[in-house]
């Protein structure tokens, strides 16, 4: 066997079939196996860092996506998708998960009755109750509900009088009036709960709760509001209706709800088997639907029930939003971010966005993208018009005369008006306004048309127009003729020439009726979408500078939305979009660029050119230096797409040519790129193996390595760090015989300036102080390693054979 001098290891791990290929230029740089080692840019290899344990996400499968506002480490977040929720975490701010900790729960009620002597301060409640006073400042995630009632002419002082609808949980809280002695003034404050619910149900998956209370009646009876009738709830989610009826001085109060009977008024002191019992002075009981109780109040009694959804702080919780996706759909998500908004596209789901708003720890929401939102259109007043006729001057017998210019008014003028908000977004135009007058070419000096309109916030935007645009018809198209201020609801047309470069907009939604896009990207100040369910070979672009608007002008303008079908002679499903000078479109059959003859793409100027025919898989491409990296259609190759000066086009280079086993054994599931400490591609395969490629195109360096752990890598992302990029991953591990998904991150690189006690080469590890001095580690910080035999770096000295025990069992 020939001896070979190794100059460096920049060839990385290669296929075993290349063991005898000494003729290859890179033969002296190959490795037969590179496991849990990484190749550095200068050609040496070093042990990869260990992983630091961050959090245990339990047995529910999870997937990661990055949320990066800018390059500052504190503005980078981890989105953890699970079947039921999306959690937000931060690598650089460990307290983030604690500061946003709100959990909402209901206090228990045992159904016990009560009464009193008529003293308003004699309060009786049950369960765990807090804060009976008025809450004037409700923070997002905090919900409060109080039921107040008083009999015998008394009334409670203050109570929670709020309703709040935050995120995906809707709750309505309204008080009732308290009865007065001798009068039937029980509070029917709420007749149809849907007037609350309808304001909150926006999409499937909302938990709806309605709370209603009838007041304490005086003499006679008064029933609580029938608020629970008609409440509708999305199948599979929680709906509750709590009702409290007021007791009457000479009767009782009940509510007609499923499971509760309606009780007729009775004599003084009568008792009824219902949600509230009557008595002299009355009583009030808050009961669940379907529950009956026998609760009689004492003469002149006061009954006060305070039931509250209150805030409990939990250090292990964070801001959480409902996840509308199936967990199996998450790897197929295409995403692109602008500022505080992350857009998500998937063919089986409507276009959605995750938004960060407010102050730290912020409010995180996910919602469907509603296209073409704007102010409401103005309404022209058909009976508010003023036509002014000009004058004709003529000379007769040397004298100059003037008279009203007469001409048959047989032409019909057409006008439209639109409203423009402070954000510059223009509404749809008003309905067409027709006025019989002269044709504009026949107008004379002094001719004018004045008309009026009105405007109302029928869309519920809460915004007012900054100004109004006015358009007039010319040869079948509307052109801009002027503008008015926000408080001016009229316009005087003095035969202004219509500007056909500014026309009113028309609604267009190419993604209606379930035609959802599968890819999303941003290019030239437009949001680009493609690969829809019904038009898989078509790409679409929003209006310039208005990402969520697809309204068109007529005739088309350069900033109008764009639609282009990839007519390549074969079925080329759009798999990804990437902005890189031109717009790159990866399809199942090849890779294309979208360019124009001018400076920007317009509806009338789009040129699609084939660059390579490798075909692409639905894994989002990576932009690395001056190249785009993508996964081939069958997942068995990683292709580098870089510009070739000789051919004046982009050419593909197979980065896995010498190490095909790296991706042939199992395709890539998710990948990311880090610039520091060295340029590297990190990819998670479908079989749970992590692979890495040190990639420096200018130096012809692409060195592969593989990384294994006791478990399987599931998901991986990269975030901006302080001194080096952060690599965060989800790892599927066994904890006490059960599957857990653990959030971990790579430890900082160990270099010559790192103290030996700071070395970190264990996976799923933690750093803490152990003052017990025993061979067994007993710490709640190691709950994710219970039962494992672990290695310990004890003040720089390695120790083997330690066993992690359950603290509770050990204490027992």
Task: Give a written overview of the molecule.
This protein has 812 residues and is mainly β. It has four helices and 55 strands. The relative contact order is 0.11. It is elongated, with a radius of gyration of 35 Å.
Number of strands: 55
What is the molecular shape?
A: elongated
Biggest pleated sheet: 5 strands, mixed
Structural class: mainly beta
What level of helicity do the residues show? under 10%
The number of helices is 4
Strand content: 35-45%
Strand order of the largest sheet: 10-11-12-13-15
Question: Which structural traits does this protein have?
Answer:
812 residues, single chain, mainly beta
In a few lines, what is going on in this structure?
The protein is mainly beta and 812 residues long.
Secondary structure elements and their pairing?
Blueprint: E1 12-13, E2 30-31, E3 37-39, E4 45-47, E5 51-56, E6 62-68, E7 76-82, E8 85-89, H1 96-99, E9 103-106, E10 164-166, E11 169-173, H2 194-197, E12 207-213, E13 239-245, E14 273-274, E15 285-287, E16 293-294, E17 309-312, E18 320-322, E19 334-338, E20 341-346, E21 349-357, E22 363-368, E23 379-388, E24 391-396, E25 399-404, E26 411-420, E27 433-437, E28 448-454, E29 467-474, E30 477-485, E31 490-493, E32 505-506, E33 519-523, E34 526-530, E35 538-541, E36 552-553, E37 562-565, E38 574-580, E39 582-587, E40 591-595, E41 607-612, E42 622-624, E43 627-631, E44 638-644, E45 649-654, H3 661-664, E46 668-674, E47 680-685, E48 690-696, E49 701-707, E50 712-719, E51 726-735, E52 738-746, E53 776-777, E54 789-794, E55 797-804, H4 807-811
Parallel strand pairs: 1-2, 11-12, 12-13, 53-55
Antiparallel strand pairs: 3-4, 5-52, 6-7, 7-8, 8-18, 9-17, 10-11, 13-15, 14-16, 19-20, 20-21, 21-22, 23-28, 24-25, 26-27, 26-29, 28-31, 29-30, 32-36, 33-34, 34-35, 35-37, 38-39, 39-40, 40-41, 42-43, 43-44, 44-45, 46-47, 47-48, 48-49, 50-51, 51-52, 54-55
